[in-house]
Each structure stands twice: as structure tokens, then as C-alpha cells.
Specification:
With 208 residues, the protein is an alpha+beta fold. It is 24% helix and 32% strand. The N terminus is likely disordered.
């Protein structure tokens, strides 16, 4: 099941604002100020996301620039050349794909390594930022697709009782890096890891 890490500390409060924007922000899909770009095969189609038992997936247009709000764990590293697409269901489940076409393959290799480092330390950082949250994470391994993709799970629980589970993947094909994020209320038990891995393989294969 991967390596599990649990850490408790104290801190501030912004990170799980990005968690909580789930279904509500999904309905807004793409910020009005974002410049839209042509929808291309480089981004996932709704049907390529992990199936939801009670709802189809919907998607906004592909937009250029950083998303608002920034996603937890990886948001601080995203450059202005990021393109992104939002996905949502009729319930609380939501997803996001972010793609960065780097200036060179070496740049993108280093960028992907930075994202993996941020995800590896995500639970600790969340708890340093918000004393009301306990965060636990798992590493689900590396997928053999193009230059590789790594899959992570992050669970957050507030003292008030709310609980959210997110899956992340970072994959690269040449000079292009893509991040896929899936999230909903729940725990690791609710995470569709096998389906998310299949989605990640599709996302990386579609980069070119």
C-alpha cells in the first residue's frame, strides 16, 4: 500500500482552503479572468477520470496561467506558463490537471523533481501551516509511462471532524510535465488508487 507518514505540528491556515473549494469552485470551473486556450488532446477528457459511482464528470475549458486558488502541495512551484483544466461531478468529487511545457528537457526534469519533493513533504507542511489539521500521506509508487510518473495520497482531518482525501500524480514526457489531482471528502479507504493510476498513464501518454 505504499509508505505511510503521519506527523503533527502547528501553524497557519491557507492550505486546505484549496481542499475546501471542491464542488463549489468546480461549478465556477475556470476563473473569469483566466485567458482560455484551445482545448487540445493534451488534457484529460472527463470520461478519462476515475469513474464516480453516482455522477458523470464535467470539465471547464483549458485555461492558461496559474489556477486560483492554487492547489495544495504543488501550487507554490507552479510557473506562470502553467495551463490547467478543472473537472467536477454533481457531488463533492473534483479534479484538476496542470501542464507545464518547459524551456528544455533538463528544466522540466528538475521541475518534476521539485514537485515530487513538495509532495513528499506535503503532510508536514500542511500541519505546520494549520494547527487544526492532522495530515497523513502515502506514496503509491512510480508508473512506467514515458519518463515516469509518481503517485501520492494526502489525507487531511480537521479538529471539527471534516475529512478529505486527495490523490496527486506528477508525470513527464520530454520537456512537458503534468500534474493530476483528484479529491473528495473521505479517507484513504475512499481513494480510487488503481483508477487514478490509469488516469495518470492516460494523461502522460496524451502530452504528445
Amino acid at each position: 500500500m505504499g509508505e505511510t507518514m503521519q506527523i503533527r505540528t502547528r501553524g497557519l491556515r491557507t492550505t486546505v482552503a484549496a481542499l475546501a473549494v471542491v464542488a463549489g469552485v468546480a461549478a465556477a470551473a475556470v476563473p473569469a479572468a483566466a485567458a482560455t486556450v484551445s482545448d487540445t488532446p493534451r488534457f484529460l477528457e472527463p470520461a478519462e477520470l476515475p469513474p464516480h459511482p453516482s455522477s458523470p464528470w464535467y470539465a471547464g475549458a483549458v485555461a492558461s496561467g496559474q489556477p486560483d486558488p492554487l492547489p495544495m502541495c504543488v501550487g507554490d512551484a507552479l510557473p506562470s506558463i502553467t495551463s490547467h483544466r478543472e473537472y467536477w461531478t454533481e457531488y463533492d468529487t473534483n479534479a484538476q490537471q496542470l501542464t507545464v511545457e518547459g524551456r528544455s528537457e533538463q528544466w522540466s526534469k528538475e521541475f518534476a523533481a521539485l514537485l515530487r519533493k513538495d509532495l513528499a513533504g506535503c503532510a508536514k507542511k500542511i500541519m505546520q501551516q494549520d494547527a487544526d489539521i492532522t495530515a497523513t500521506q502515502k506514496y503509491y509508487g512510480r508508473l512506467k509511462v514515458e519518463e515516469g510518473a509518481d503517485v501520492y495520497g494526502i489525507h487531511t482531518a480537521r479538529a471539527s471532524g471534516s475529512s478529505d482525501i486527495h490523490l496527486f500524480s506528477v508525470g513527464r514526457d520530454g520537456a512537458t510535465v503534468t500534474i493530476v489531482r483528484w479529491g473528495q471528502m473521505g479517507t484513504f479507504h475512499d481513494a480510487p488508487v488503481a483508477d487514478f493510476k490509469a488516469t495518470t498513464v492516460t494523461a502522460v501518454n496524451k502530452l504528445y
